């Protein structure tokens, strides 16, 4: 007589599964906590002046004591970052999609986009300030310009990677170019697109801060420069910490969008 095989999972299986899901959060947080502890001990042990290297406690105290000011300066930075990213997304996807319909346009425009991007982004900043002024318009322009290239390149690569057999099948079924694009080429490019969007959202933050360094009277970049002039190193690090949080939240939002799209497509 053959005995039944026990297929009951071990009692530790749910715990191991839960840790495996949470390790993406637990491990980075634990590593960051260790770095902060080493920073605190090093600053105290070497008796570093506060103006040179404040401790994490000093930075946290500056963050709490100046929460109102930091929040007030965070709003314009986040606003310009999101607007620049959104505008770059529309332009990047739109131009890449347009070029996918015409080989002639692609051969004429694509090389020029590459040439423009070969110039360091910071070199264009003075021109944007001259053209758009020193207000939010120049910050928006710089953020859009910096974000555009990775989105455009990713979208072009995604559209070109479409399974050609599916495209030929659509043509054989007399589907229009637009219908083929909407049903086959665009869905096939989403993986590449979201990769470009993740890069672009971080570059948008960088673009806005660079613009605020050069010409602005508001924003976290302006706060960092002002604090540097006053030798308030703890405030500089507090503003940088807020920038890190802003960047992580924006990146997480793009990643959540990618997950939502994949679930909607049944992947």
Percentage of residues in strands: under 5%
The rounded distance between the terminal residues' Cα atoms is 44 Å
The Rg value, from CA coordinates, equals 25 Å
Reading the helices and strands in chain order gives HHHHHHHHHHH
Helix content: over 70%
Q: What class do helices, strands and sheet pairing give?
A: mainly alpha
How many strands appear in the DSSP assignment?
A: 0
- The shape is globular
Largest sheet: none
Description:
With 267 residues, the protein is mainly α. It has helices at residues 13-45, 56-65, 67-101, 103-118, 121-132, 136-160, 164-172, 177-188, 190-214, 220-229, 233-264. α3 (67-101) runs antiparallel to α4, α7 runs antiparallel to α8 and α9 packs antiparallel against α11. The longest helix is centred in the first third of the chain and has 35 residues, at 67-101. It is globular, with a radius of gyration of 25 Å.
Chain-wise SSE layout:
Blueprint: H1 13-45, H2 56-65, H3 67-101, H4 103-118, H5 121-132, H6 136-160, H7 164-172, H8 177-188, H9 190-214, H10 220-229, H11 233-264
Helix pairs in contact: 2-11, 3-4, 3-6, 3-9, 3-10, 3-11, 5-6, 6-9, 7-8, 9-10, 9-11, 10-11
